Each structure stands twice: as structure tokens, then as C-alpha cells.
């Protein structure tokens, strides 16, 4: 039997709510904690637990058919991948921040500055649009520590509650984009699996309506 293959964040902020929305859709997944692959008992679906940043490539290659992923990750790495549904959870911003003590005037202040980030494409596009060139330092996590250890003058990262910025004595000065979890679709999805996607979308839409 054909199954639709869905990628879900292995760990991190999207994992729980992604599984919850499937559950609310009446899809139960046998979930061995350390298993990277699981199946549903009552819907033709296979779940792959993957690292966030790898998911756009898996979609592109057609290794998975669909994914629940932060729109911000698609903007950074998967502009070619289409969105079937906006899911309304995991809302966040991708922002530029500087040390609290810095007097900030405008985005022009970033000219020639060192910016630490895990979102190089997003930052470059944003700054390019403003005619600003900066020196990017790409790091994969704990980005907010960079100004405090002298690695960078500023950072660009996800802002959700704002508490990571606050704890690291940083202030948000430019919001580059707002994001939420989305259901993304592989350009290589087959017709058969597209039918399963339609069934899933029908359920998701009623869950989202009920959530209001
Ligand atoms: C994420 C993100 C920010 C923080 C934002 O980091 O990179 O640092 O959460 O959330 P907040 O505004 O609610 O504080 P995460 O904790 O996932 O760790 P990582 O950066 O090491 O991946
Ligand atoms: Mg972080």
C-alpha cells in the first residue's frame, strides 16, 4: 500500500506541536523515542524525524513527500518548495539584534559590521535590499552569545518570546520576517501520494477551523 512520507522536526520547538496536529487529525503514530522512522496505525503515513535544516533538501530530492517545517527555514533554504497549508503554530520572527548598550539609528548601521547567524541567505537578501554589506559569521546555534565573546557586532536569529535576547543583553532592532509552521510539499510528489496529501489537508483544515 502506498504511504505518504512526512518529515517532522526530530527535536526542538516544532516537534511536539507537529505530532499534536497529526494526533488532532486522528492520525496515531507509534512513537519509539529513538526511532527516526515511524508508521501510523490508522493512516497510510510514514514519519521521518529529521534535522530542521536538512528537510528542504529531502523535499527537493523527493525522499519525503511532505514536511511540517518553519517557514523561516524554507525562506532560508527552500524558496523553490511550495507551501500547502499554513499551520498557525510556532510563530516567530527572524530579527537582527545588537547589544543593548549600542545606540541604533537605522539598518545602515550594519554597514561593514560582523553579524553572527544561522540564516545567511535571509540576512544577505535583507541587507542587499537596503544597500548594506556586512561580514557574516555562520554558526549553527547559541548565536546570541557571539557579541558577548567578541565574535560579532550583531546577530540575526529567531526571536520567539525574546527571552534569549534579553538574557544575552541584546535588543531586537530589525524584524526581517515573521514565520509560522507550514506544511511543505515536495516538487516530486506522485499523483497517488497527492491524493493522500489531499485527505490529510482536508483533516488539517477542519482541525485549524476548530482551533479558531
Ligand atoms: C532558538 C533560537 C533563539 C531562541 C529564540 O534557539 O535560535 O536563540 O530559540 O527563542 P526565544 O525568543 O523564546 O528565547 P534554541 O533554543 O532552539 O537553540 P539553538 O540556537 O542552540 O539551536
Ligand atoms: Mg538559539
Automatic annotation (TrEMBL):
Its main location: cytoplasm. It catalyses: 1-(5-phospho-beta-D-ribosyl)-ATP + diphosphate = 5-phospho-alpha-D-ribose 1-diphosphate + ATP. It is found in: Cytoplasm. The keyword Magnesium applies. GO terms for cellular component: cytoplasm. Pathway: Amino-acid biosynthesis; L-histidine biosynthesis; L-histidine from 5-phospho-alpha-D-ribose 1-diphosphate: step 1/9. This is ATP phosphoribosyltransferase. It comes from Maribacter ulvicola. The gene is hisG. The chain holds residues 1 to 212 of 285 of the full protein.
Amino acid at each position: 500500500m502506498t504511504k505518504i512520507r512526512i518529515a517532522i522536526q526530530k527535536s526542538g520547538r516544532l516537534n511536539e506541536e507537529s505530532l499534536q496536529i497529526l494526533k488532532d487529525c486522528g492520525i496515531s503514530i507509534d512513537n519509539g523515542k529513538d526511532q527516526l522512522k515511524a508508521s501510523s496505525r490508522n493512516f497510510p503515513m510514514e514519519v521521518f524525524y529529521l534535522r530542521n535544516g536538512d528537510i528542504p533538501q529531502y523535499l527537493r530530492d523527493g525522499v519525503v513527500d511532505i514536511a511540517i517545517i518553519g517557514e523561516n527555514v524554507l525562506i532560508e533554504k527552500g524558496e523553490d518548495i511550495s507551501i500547502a497549508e499554513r499551520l498557525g503554530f510556532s510563530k516567530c520572527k527572524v530579527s537582527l539584534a545588537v547589544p543593548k548598550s549600542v545606540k541604533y539609528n537605522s539598518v545602515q548601521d550594519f554597514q561593514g559590521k560582523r553579524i553572527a547567524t544561522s540564516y545567511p541567505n535571509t540576512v544577505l537578501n535583507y541587507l542587499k535590499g537596503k544597500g548594506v554589506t556586512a561580514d557574516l559569521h555562520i554558526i549553527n546555534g547559541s548565536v546570541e552569545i557571539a557579541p558577548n565573546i567578541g565574535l560579532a557586532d550583531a546577530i540575526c536569529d529567531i526571536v520567539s518570546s525574546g527571552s534569549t535576547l534579553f538574557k544575552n543583553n541584546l535588543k531586537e532592532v530589525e524584524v526581517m520576517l515573521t514565520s509560522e509552521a507550514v506544511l511543505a510539499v515536495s516538487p516530486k510528489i506522485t499523483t497517488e501520494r497527492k491524493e493522500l496529501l489531499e485527505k490529510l489537508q482536508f483533516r488539517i483544515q477542519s482541525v485549524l477551523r476548530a482551533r479558531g
